[in-house]
Each structure stands twice: as C-alpha cells, then as structure tokens.
Design brief:
Elements (H helix, E strand, L loop, with lengths): L1 E7 L2 E10 L4 H9 L7 E12 L1 H16 L3 E7 L1 H10 L7 E3 L1
Parallel strand pairs: 2-3, 3-4, 4-5
Antiparallel strand pairs: 1-2
C-alpha cells in the first residue's frame, strides 16, 4: 500500500493506494499516531484502494474515534465499489461519512 499525505487549510489529506490489510494497516496506524497539531479534520481518499480487510477496518475505526474524541471531522472520499461493499456488510456505512467514487 502507498500512503500520500498533505495538510491544506487545516485538513489532513491522506490518499491510500492498494490494499489495506493485516500487512499494511500498521503503516496507517503509525501515521495517525503522529497527527499534525493544526488539523481540524481528515479526508481519507480511497480512490485507488482495491481491498480492505478487518485489520484495515479496525484502523479506520480508530481514526474515527480519535477524530470524534477531539471534536474533529473525518470523511472518506472516492470509495471504490469493492471497499464500499465491505463497509456496507460490516455496518460501517452507518457510522462513516462516505463519498463514493
């Protein structure tokens, strides 16, 4: 998985490419531990993701909890069909702010 990030006007943009699974989810989890202080929200771009596992779901949920606790926002954009289907099956569509591709 490739992770690209930038901060623009207080929004932390994180783009993911590839698979978010047991092997790659620790990379994203490590990244969010070092959240920039000045951010007021996260936009997670999943437009180039083709797979998410339960380990990936766990990290996304950790991110959401961290943002909610701090009173910040989190939005998932460009969510591909295979990833959206996993979110639907697990009920994550009810708790995440998702924009499909």
């Amino acid at each position: 998985m490739t992770i690209t990030q930038s901060v623009n006007e207080g929004i932390w943009n994180i783009a993911l490419e590839g698979r978010l699974d047991i092997n790659t989810s620790p990379d994203l989890e490590d990244l969010i531990k070092d959240e920039p202080d000045e951010i007021r929200g996260i936009v997670l771009d999943m437009g180039k993701m083709n797979y998410i596992s339960s380990a990936g779901l766990r990290v996304v949920l950790l991110m959401l909890k961290k943002m909610n606790k701090a009173g910040k926002t989190m939005k998932l954009i460009n969510v591909t069909d295979p990833v959206y289907e996993v979110f639907e099956l697990t009920g994550f569509t009810d708790i995440l702010n998702i924009e499909r591709a």
